[in-house]
Amino acid sequence: MPQAWGGGYENIASGETSTVGGGYSNIASGYGATVSGGYFNLAGGDYSWAGGNEARVRDAATVGGGNTTGDQGTFVWSDSQGPPFQSTGQNQFLVRAAGGVGINKNNPAAALDINGNALVSGNLGIGTIAPNRSLHIAHNGGVEMSMLVNDGLTDWRTWNIWTSGGAGVKQNLNFRLLNDLGTATTLDVFHLNSDGSAWLNGTLASGGLASTLAGGIAVNGSSTSSYGVQGTSTNSVGVVGVSTNNTGVWGQANTGTAVDGSSTSGVGVLGRSTSGNGVKGTTGNTIAIYAVNNSTDAPAIEGWNQGSGYLYRGWSGASPVLKFWVANNGNAWLAGTLTQASDARLKTDIRPLEDTLDKVLRLRGVSYVMKSDETKTRRIGVIAQELEREYPELVATDDQGMKSVAYANLTAVLIEAVKQLKAENDALKARLDRIEQLLTTK
User: Fold this and answer.
1) Is residue 219 within 8 Å of 227, Cβ to Cβ?
2) Do residues 94 and 76 touch, judged by C-beta distance below 8 A?
3) Which of 294, 232, 284 is nearest to 256 (CA)?
4) How many whole angstroms separate alpha carbon 349 and alpha carbon 364?
5) Measuring CA to CA, how many Å separate 77 from each of 97, 398, 435?
6) Is the Cβ–Cβ distance between 214 and 192 less than 8 Å?
7) Residues in the chain, pLDDT under 70
8) Which of 248, 243, 205 has the alpha carbon at shortest distance from 229?
9) Each residue's pLDDT tens digit, 10-41
10) What is the pLDDT of residues 380-415, one digit of tens each?
């Protein structure tokens, strides 16, 4: 069968239908083998290819053991570096490139640099030649991490992370962060224990802990002696949970704080759910949800309901009984009695109210419908601007100029007005009594 060579010096194309394109001292000895050119390259296997500098595809004699085809079907490219770069088996694709291999780019920054998407149809192993999961990372110390995504045997919606300690051996999984110097000093950021418990310790510049779940609990923390869920952030949200079907953030603790979120310039705890609880805290004997705000112009706890239900609801008892609620339309309800601090020891500059009856007579009691009330429920009250002219102390104005009334404090005004009316009535009665006495003596 014919062989071909295109030029060069001291090249040999000895295999049937083999080819040497040029270069110096290249050999194509396998059947259908090709050396494109270069220096001291060998394509010794059938259907093999070699190129560059000292790229070697082993021939049958080198492989030995009765082999007759060499490393057939093997491709070897070698860069300008020595020593010879030689194949070790059949059907290999080998590249030695000290400057890196670039795909869709001409300036690779690593041994393999891909510009674009990469698809792995089988299992991918890092540190192992026998990956048994979609992503299998192994360390030479024996600790392994495997991530499983839809192998047809398990639920593809989850990622499983595990450590290999042999059959029947349970090990804790720890995530650790080396310090900047790369020494043995480490910071434990996350522990996942073999008994199913977990521990998280982290402070992030733009968010403490974030989780989103389509159905179920987004962030669920449970503890017997400390925090159920704790998140710290310097610029965003300490703890955020979003759920479309259950609880956004749920913390449970027996003797500590169930949910604790801290942020210096954002939201401490943010829970959002479309059909369940935004934030839920359960505790044995202390605070279920604890909120602290060091700012002077933001709330410690804020509720936002985009629907028509409740902003807040409070329950108590082993068989929960509703104790209070605040509705999305601004209405509120309380099962017990609402009191305000009024101890004399808390007050100073106490003054009696004067001319209360005249001021009350200048007020109007009206019925009305709030513009924002879609139910058009008729209510009874006063007009804040009219009350403010008589008693500005009973009217508050927010940063948008909207006014509100301290209706409970109107009681003091009405008490004094009734007393003044009673005094006038008593004086009038006494006068009538004297007139009757004069008339009866005549």
Assistant:
1) no
2) yes
3) 284
4) 30
5) 8, 76, 130
6) no
7) 1-5, 139-238, 240, 242-246, 252-253, 263-266, 272-276, 282-286, 292-300, 442
8) 248
9) 999 999 999 999 999 999 999 999 999 999 99
10) 999 999 999 999 999 999 999 999 999 999 999 999
